[in-house]
Amino acid sequence: MRASPSGPGAASPTLTAPRRPGAAVLALAFATSLASTACASGAAPSQAVGAVPDPDWELSTLDGEILSLRSFRGTPVFVNLWATWCPPCVEEMASIQRLVEQLGPDSPVRFALVTPEEAAPVQAFLDRNGLALPVYLEGTLVPESMDVEALPTTVILDGDGRVVLHYRGAAAWDRPEMVEYLRTLSGTP
């Protein structure tokens, strides 16, 4: 199944605005931007928005270091669930790389690109494609509250660990609206 904003199976983004002035307008602009490129699929909005995924969800770095979702608390987190064998996942990787670069090294927004695969093929994929992204392996199963039914799925958590954006399918994550949304969510200019 190919899930992308312009193909069958795509779902509209579901998000809530961060609790900052002007954030509701930015959230709406970003949602409208993604939705305008999405094909109406008839899918119901995700029940994940507003949920708080299990903070004890374990992730592993490619080097084997174990950490939990709890270690990201206090800052927004862009979680992308993907796999190297998933064409729409691979398609959106370059835009995620550009988003990371646009936010800059001092951004408080954390990124966690999570895959169910083994470290060696994932590292080979990153090297082959010239990607320098914070990739993690699933240490434990993805929390049900993240509502992952297909890959790729992107979930953005606010600093309190609540889901504020849930999107199934590939997207151009480096759009100006997303950069501004994440900056507003993190309270940075």
Describe this structure in words.
- It is built from four helices and eight strands.
- With 189 residues, the chain is of the alpha+beta class.
- An eight-stranded mixed β-sheet has the order 1-8-7-4-5-6-2-3, covered by helices on one side.
- Helix 1 packs antiparallel against helix 4.
- The protein is globular and about 35 Å long.
- The N terminus is likely disordered.
Which key features would you list for this structure?
single chain, 189 residues, alpha+beta, eight-stranded mixed β-sheet, 4 helices, globular, disordered N terminus
Quick recap:
With 189 residues, the protein is of the alpha+beta class.
| Span of the ends, CA to CA | 39 Å
Quaternary structure state of the chains depicted = single chain
Tell me the strand percentage band: 15-25%
How would you state the average pLDDT, rounded?
80
Treating each run of at least 4 consecutive H or I residues as one helix, how many helices? 4
What is the C-alpha radius of gyration, as a whole number of Å?
15 Å
Strand order of the largest sheet: 1-8-7-4-5-6-2-3
Principal-axis shape: globular
> What about the largest sheet?
8 strands, mixed
Alpha-beta content class: alpha+beta
